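Re: export button greyed out
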Amino acid sequence: MTLVKNAVGRMVPTEINGRPAIPFQGVGKHRPAGRKVGPPIPTGADFTGSKLKQSIDEVLDSANLKNGMTISFHHHLRNGDGLVNLVMDKLAERGVKGITLAPSALFPVHEPLVQHIRWGIVDNVEGSMNGPVGRLCTTGGFKKTAILRSHGGRYRAIQDGDLHIDLAFIAAPSADSHGNANGVHGPSAFGSIGFALADSLYADQVAIVTDNLVPFPCYPWAIQGGNVDYVVQVDSLGDPGKIVSGTTKVTTDSTRLQIAQWAAELVRDTGLLEEPEFSFQAGAGGMSLAFVKYLGEFMKKKGVSASFARGGSTKLLVDLLNEGIVKYILDGQCFDMAGVKSLAENPRHIDTNPFTSYCYHTKGCFAPKIKVSVLGATEIDMNFNVNVNTHSDGWLLHGIGGFQDTTDAYMTVITAPLVRKVHPIVVKDVVTVTAPGESIDALVTEYGIAINPRRQDILDRIKGSGLPLVTMEELYDKATELIKGKRKPMPETTDKIVAAIEWRDGTVIDVVRQLAPDDRGY
Amino acid sequence: MTLVKNAVGRMVPTEINGRPAIPFQGVGKHRPAGRKVGPPIPTGADFTGSKLKQSIDEVLDSANLKNGMTISFHHHLRNGDGLVNLVMDKLAERGVKGITLAPSALFPVHEPLVQHIRWGIVDNVEGSMNGPVGRLCTTGGFKKTAILRSHGGRYRAIQDGDLHIDLAFIAAPSADSHGNANGVHGPSAFGSIGFALADSLYADQVAIVTDNLVPFPCYPWAIQGGNVDYVVQVDSLGDPGKIVSGTTKVTTDSTRLQIAQWAAELVRDTGLLEEPEFSFQAGAGGMSLAFVKYLGEFMKKKGVSASFARGGSTKLLVDLLNEGIVKYILDGQCFDMAGVKSLAENPRHIDTNPFTSYCYHTKGCFAPKIKVSVLGATEIDMNFNVNVNTHSDGWLLHGIGGFQDTTDAYMTVITAPLVRKVHPIVVKDVVTVTAPGESIDALVTEYGIAINPRRQDILDRIKGSGLPLVTMEELYDKATELIKGKRKPMPETTDKIVAAIEWRDGTVIDVVRQLAPDDRGY
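Workaround output, generated via the alternate export path:
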């Protein structure tokens, strides 16, 4: 295997799973060639009968199953998903081998996949792995190299032909017999179903699985019947209580509240709030919610509004929409029931998908229109390179999500406590580079705010603001002091590359190496 | 040129404009090969600046103009369109030659194109030609063979790569600087902008032209900014008074009222109204509206509702939606202001496009879900073959519209007075076959209803109904009597093929030949 040094100084392979791989070249530097995928031309003559199948088994009977095929799922059901395990068990029963699994993400509920991977039913995962499957990957348990992509990167990879899907399963809270489907209505409603759009457009075969078959036309038709082969009704898509939170809650931890407040003050003091196209994005964690709360209060005080907020929607964001502080929510996933309900009912709460929001290989997505994105991280280094995938001990436990894509914002702010348990956030070198420092603009900790020196424009904006500015070096030293100097070395790994981290343009920004047995903690 | 006899007995060429052509093989018989078009992969790196251009000229400065290019437009502005002539005049000024024009349709307002074609600015039209350009085509004034396609056929041709568009101009009543656009808001609002969808997805370059630039996000985004290269604001898109009718009106002519009533009785007496998935489609002409009016009355009397009605929407259809007689309108174009307003405001009035509604090369569109479609025609022959393109005197004056696509309905009904002026509707041979008899199920005239003998199921449904059933032979004889036996022969033509009529699957169902000079009437 040939390794070359990429633009963030990481050694990455020039070939992954037998396909050429391009090393990360810097933000906006790689130019794609070629054409988008053109799926096989179907004919209405093959769809004069019913698409309805009586069971998942009937779908599998009709689908052209073969060893080595790629099967995809979306992750809008999160840890409440009942579909992935069901389908994979059936494929295992049928003796299909060497499957590449292409979920937008996996969760702890998908632990049964560990056995399927060990037994050779599944050879690889191209998708995010939160939890047990990530642990297996880190120990070298996959036959191939896993590939992690951002939400926009996954759409891009499918569109560009890097990730060919043979058979896509789309769990749909509402669908009709034609295959039109959405995520906003029905007992398993989770809101936006956008992560499945690329699958529906580009997979050879598409199966809609629903627990809520409605008369034609199912509308909104976020997934369109013209792209669907099969529709099957099941009793349940999973555990609704784990699909969407009842409520998302603002943190009550004083450290996190301090960080959130400073992040909001940073945004306020840049003057961005007063600009007519102000917009922002933050997650659904307690600290992100606190940031949104503070920001909303500042906006109310100033009598200004945001042209839009990017969701992950939450009750807090919905409240701001209803109060007119936010004019539109552009939503990619709903994190609580208030978000789902608002998406279904409020015409200013707009459903999006990774094509409109995040995909870099378009004639522009709206990610660069976002003025401020506030994101979490597991590590950040002195050059502002960020890791969200691995922990400091080397375990690959998180997906990229929309992280890379949202760094396209005018100002990307990382919020994190300086030390988590015994792990400092600020390090000399991150274990894994998820996003290059050139895309990260600020770090807000409870010990102060570091602005990326590349962003003189932001430094100019906040001059004289009284914000607690510090340097990364100062934060590094403070963190070292807090852990009493006991900085752990980088985790010990073998040479084996178990996963590649793609930048949103499809180039390889870093790899994850197999944890050495002694460093696995068991 | 090699000519072969196709499945409706017409002699058609095996090559058109240097490309292989497939003769019509019967409904559902031709199987497509190959893959959909994969457009060149763009990169966000090329779209970091503004897409806004100050003028059409600035768009043309940026676009990669070349002789022989294909330029497209949609026809939602109808006879009020101000864009086609404006752009074509500018291309003429710039000396671009040999353009293929690919409008979804042209109207009398586009008469200035006649000069552009004569001067070699435009070599060909692939699209419908209502009026003067059609006349020019019929006299052999084009350098190439024009190609006419249905709405679904046009989407298919662009998707399948038969019609490659270099530069698409999309007139948008509402758009933002990112290129998101819709047709429902703004001073030139015309409703659905669906005819432009394929252009936006597959053209190399896409320019949005709007007279109503709104802040991001313009929503609904029927056209998505991720597919758009340029956005330009102009003072006006055309003449709003001619874009959409103020009101559409039910006919008051007693003959047409009789036909409409019988058509509605035919539908009623089939028992389809009582079926849970009843749905229907009719046009916006006075007789079609009368049909809808009678049908609505029957439905009210029976206390039933339609699962959906397919628009072309009109005030009449909107009233039925609001009364609950129609549960949804699936709308492809709005024919009056009530339709536009309803599409903008009523969530049960759903915007569609030719992919969802009509395209045959999908995994099913909804055309076959329509139970009854009621359509007009210029001629129909003893085998139920229908002509909607040419008049009996040979002039090519009409497009196909959605005609072919809607024949996919369970029951396709042609309504027409038996004689128009001196022209009988029922003929031995239609001048041009637009749709094959196998796709047409009934003809309703003021002298009775002829059911296609192929449809024994329909004949069984209406047995004993008391409907005035007649045979095509009887209608032919009656028409001959009405015109006192003075049936005109087929128009005299040269051998030159001036236009090809494609069936919705891309095969050639008929051709139009150049009218012989003596038969041109001037």
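Chain B has two domains: 65-243, 254-482. The button fix ships in the next patch.
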